Amino acid sequence: MNSQLSRSSKAIPRLIAEGFAKKHQRSGFQKYIDDAMAECNETIVSLEHVKDIYRIEVDLCNELLNTYDISARQLYRLAQAWNKFKGRRQMTNDHTGCEDR
Q1: Along the chain (101 residues), what's the average pLDDT of each consecutive run of 10 residues?
Q2: Which of 71, 34, 64 is nearest to 49 (CA)?
Q3: Which end of the chain offers a freer environment for a tag, N or C, measured as fewer CB atoms within 10 Å?
Q4: 25 in Cβ contact with 101 (< 8 Å)
Q5: Residue environment code for 17-41, b if the CB has 16+ CB neighbours within 10 A, otherwise e
Q6: Taking a C-beta distance cutoff of 8 angstroms, is the pair 29, 19 a contact?
Q7: Residue 15: what pLDDT?
Q8: Are 57 and 49 in contact (CB under 8 A)?
């Protein structure tokens, strides 16, 4: 449980950074945002287990759950904004005859 929680929580910023580096690819950044949201949700589930099953640091778990809930919502809004941006970019490229990678 501990290693899984550690892995999922560390993966979130790494996925965002790696995805941003691949933003020029057709669906590169979006895939990584989706993966980061999945890791965020996995972290939330692991924290719920720690809190509910093991009763370890309940107050701290609640604080962390709130933080990861906010992070998950921010990632969702980022994904929506990126979709809109990519859609506008694609429309612009369609009108100019350019292709998006």
Answers
A1: 91 96 88 96 96 95 97 96 82 61 48
A2: 64
A3: C
A4: yes
A5: ebbeeeeeeeebbbebbbbbbbbbe
A6: yes
A7: 97
A8: no
